[in-house]
Amino acid sequence: MARGDVPQDRRVGDRYFQGRLAGANSTTGTLGANHTGPADAFNFNNWVTLLSQLPLLLFTLLNSFLYQCLGPADTHSAPLMSSIPETVRILGSLLVILLLFTLTAALVKVDMSPGPFFSITMASVWFINFLQGSLFGQLGTMPSTYSTLFLSGQGLAGIFAALAMLMSMASGVDAQTSALGYFITPCVGVLVSIVCYLSLPNLEFARYYLAKKPLQAQGQEMETKAELLQSDEKNGIPNSPQKAALTLDLDSEKEPELEPEEPQKPGKPSVFVVFRKIWLTAMCLVLVFTVTLSVFPAITAMVTSSTSPGKWSQFFNPICCFLLFNVMDWLGRSLTSYFLWPNKDSRLLPLLVCLRILFVPLFMLCHVPERSRLPILFPQDAYFITFMLLFAVSNGYLMSLTMCLAPRQVLPHEKEVAGTLMTFFLALGLSCGAALSFLFKALL
Q1: Is 0.85 surpassed by the pTM of this model?
Q2: Which fold has domain 14-211+269-443?
């Protein structure tokens, strides 16, 4: 499985930023108010999406080349990686991220012209996502079956962010206090993450995998996996991809006992050989995220309610765009824990992925008042809500499905390379979609 996924950092606070970039005083108005004018010249949603994906793309590209040139054993011992202890890298990254979020919250109280404010915000976005590379690497030390849980957790993080935005808007306080409360929320979240990471050494399960001594603890690993399977059976948990993966791991580890006299040691897997096996699945993953990031949130955040001004029009986009997307995206990711359809040999998967391209014109023809070229063909709110439901569920499910199917298309010793490649193509799709969002916004 992949070593990590792109952080689902939804721009639920973009209206606050649009207000600041338009030159509006942050102490007046309402956080949920629409802002037009000079803010559009900055293309805030487009830039923040692009700059949040490029660091992941660079990390995964570097990781792929290091694996091919040095191999899995050498990459762990490379001077660049080993010069800084893993604990220091992760804790240091979390502390700097906490500092950057604190800076973002503090800027709410600072009067600043739009230009410098935009530059500082974009720099913070870049460095926050750049530092997350160390955090994604931690997932690689855990069993591959935990990747689905990791992806679901990211979906829940998006839901939490959307709810925090809605609560800040519904609080009834002035825009400055509301925005300050919203940006303090991630600071608390990072603090909780630091406490949880410091608590890992107290868990026997975590100590085992963080020790990175597979040769000395191979028997214990098989015993742990067997206990997990037995525990699932006792609790009445049905067969799932995670359980099947554990069974396959146990079978593959017991195989050498049949031929103890001459154990077969597979050679270093080639990135190009693995890519030839998973190229279609990888291209599907690229297209899924290219479509998603090309319109979300750059285009979808501009859609407004067609009803008369009021409470519903104020909360329409935060609820129907950001909250709805995150909830349905999380649901789609979670579905792969119960079934995987279509399977790895089906040609239906590329067809379903290609059909998602239709969402691009559908969203662009919704009720976006700030347009000069395309007409509005779907003005009613029901159209946008329906499109968003299908768009979000398909994004979460097809993303998680492709990440689960890729390791099943390669040999056991090639799974790590397959996971690394899929993470790279995931980042490539995100970056391509973010770049295309500039074009689609210009076509409106």
Answers
A1: no
A2: Growth Hormone; Chain: A; (1.20.1250)
